[in-house]
């Protein structure tokens, strides 16, 4: 395409040299004033003149130029996950961004939908982040971690259900969610427990550790309880099919993966004449409002994020003191909320 | 803090000069090969040698250096909204990212939680994006648009319920959602229509145009229908309070903002002995699965995004031919789905 629009835009973008000229000061002075550097004595009048010139010209500093001068960036990269949204994690990310910004980092999210793992890692590395926080669902390999480190990242941290070799890990261990649901059902005297396994892409990352936790809780309970995985799509027809052969399965209870799958399955069971909880107890996870609005009210596993060690401060520490052994911090607490469905 | 970690990281980051040295070629050749530039004749053996050297050294290009050399970036900035997630919009953003990437743009999301509008715009401008797509909830002013343009953005586009003066607009006009619900209720013979107004932060951006659409539909219907706004928090106690004084309100129907508020209010009405739909018809919006699982099944307004003119191509066109008059494209189609609750 024509070079014209680019060139015209280029000459119209004000630089710090333009600000310096307009204010009648040096570029260094412009930099000191606009970065709020107070180690250098500059009069209030000059500071005001520089700020007015910058504002009048519409000047803002160039992050790329600054990071090239510094040889490193203050950019923390959060590769955006192309996963079904997990509200708990979203809230955490929002808080993490605010906390990192307070520590003077620039937080940038980078979508990787449509890229394979290698392409994604290379795209992130091109931005030269000083730290990368990769949420679950982004398949970070030891090789990918090495690409990031060699392009200047001081800290590579995963945030998700499982740690990745060679990276620091903020772990949202899903096993406790499945274990909590099963322990609750065992305490209620249930022994033949179904565990819903969503068939939607991306959810295996959560459903498999939940199933592992359920199996472990049953095995270590010495009750002889049996766990039966139940594949289910998030569709009424899939739930109706499962409900139609429910009695043949011989189950007395089900951990339904989360509150939304629980609502879907409970409706199908009720429509098929299976009584909840008399014939089958149902437990969800997530403690959504909808569970309280169902009849019977839905029992659930509530998840909370620990705040004992603020992760933003951990990231800052890892950036300032890189090279240590991988750290692991468990963030998730699971707690059963017993209502009427179990 | 000590300069040591930064310096050591600096010397360890491989540059294109290192790749050139290892492969025994010029830096220009490295650039041609790694950018897949086929206008220059380079033998397959040399291409292979450069790629192997780059891979062996863990080299990836530096986006900031490249954009400084080019005088502009290929970065499209999506300021991340700190809004309650809207699944429809999330899917759209995922598709938009993939499409822009195919057009060779780098898509970066920037969270602005905790920043005021001016701070946010300056933070975006520092990244020197070539285009900015600001979702609803980010309060873009004409002054903010000017800061972005003067820092090199060729196109500033809003994506949300309302256009902003001076920016191109991808409009998700919410008025049609409220109008569609009300027209459906009028056709069912209802004349005293409540409209739920969520009290949660950020939702006014959606609820106010939905109410405006509802009012307009009632006024232009020549039925003498009355619209009554109903403030509601997303809490059981708030819904119970509203249900307790329902009969005093004298309403025969309600547009409940969306399916989740509809579920909350319908449960409270049923618990208070108000029959749905006989005494009060209820319509939601969003066509969520949960509406189909309620009894009575929930009527709703389904929203769909038009794909007639792919917005990614529009952004590319605006970047290549900047300076035109603000464009406006309506993306949202609203369609009523009648079920049992109305």
UniProtKB/TrEMBL annotation, chains A, B:
The keyword Cell cycle does not apply. Coiled coil: none annotated. One of its GO terms (molecular function) is DNA binding. Keywords: DNA-binding, Transcription, Transcription regulation. InterPro entries: HTH_LacI, LacI/GalR-like_sensor, Lambda_DNA-bd_dom_sf, Peripla_BP_I. Residues 14-70 form the HTH lacI-type domain. This is LacI family DNA-binding transcriptional regulator. The lineage of its organism: Bacteria, Bacillati, Actinomycetota, Actinomycetes, Kitasatosporales.
């Amino acid at each position: 395409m024509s070079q014209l629009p680019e060139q015209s835009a280029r000459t119209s973008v004000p630089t710090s040299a333009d600000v310096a000229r307009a204010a009648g000061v040096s570029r260094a002075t412009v930099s000191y004033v606009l970065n709020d550097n107070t180690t250098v004595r500059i009069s209030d009048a000059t500071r005001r003149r520089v700020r007015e010139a910058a504002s009048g010209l519409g000047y803002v500093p160039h992050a790329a130029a600054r990071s090239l001068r510094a040889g490193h960036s203050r950019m923390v990269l959060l590769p955006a996950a192309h996963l079904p949204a997990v509200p708990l994690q979203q809230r955490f990310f929002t808080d993490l961004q605010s906390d990192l910004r307070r520590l003077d980092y620039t937080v940038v999210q980078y979508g990787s939908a449509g890229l394979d793992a290698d392409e994604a890692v290379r795209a992130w590395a091109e931005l030269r982040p000083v730290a990368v926080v990769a949420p679950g669902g982004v398949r970070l390999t030891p090789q990918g971690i090495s690409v990031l480190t060699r392009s200047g990242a001081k800290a590579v941290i995963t945030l998700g259900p499982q740690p990745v070799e060679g990276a620091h890990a903020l772990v949202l261990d899903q096993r406790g969610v499945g274990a909590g649901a099963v322990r609750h059902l065992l305490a209620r005297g249930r022994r033949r427990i179904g565990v819903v396994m969503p068939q939607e892409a991306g959810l295996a990352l959560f459903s498999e550790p939940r199933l592992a936790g359920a199996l472990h809780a049953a095995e270590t309970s010495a009750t002889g309880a049996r766990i039966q995985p139940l594949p289910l799509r998030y569709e009424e027809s899939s739930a109706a099919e499962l409900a139609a052969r429910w009695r043949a399965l011989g189950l007395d209870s089900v951990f339904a993966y989360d509150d939304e799958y629980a609502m879907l399955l409970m409706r199908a069971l009720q429509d098929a004449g299976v009584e909840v909880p008399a014939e089958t107890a149902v437990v969800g996870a997530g403690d959504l409002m909808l569970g309280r609005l169902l009849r019977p009210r839905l029992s659930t596993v509530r998840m909370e994020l620990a705040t004992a060690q603020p992760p933003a401060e951990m990231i800052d520490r890892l950036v300032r003191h890189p090279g240590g052994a991988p750290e692991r911090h468990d963030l998730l607490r699971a707690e059963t909320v017993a209502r009427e469905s179990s």
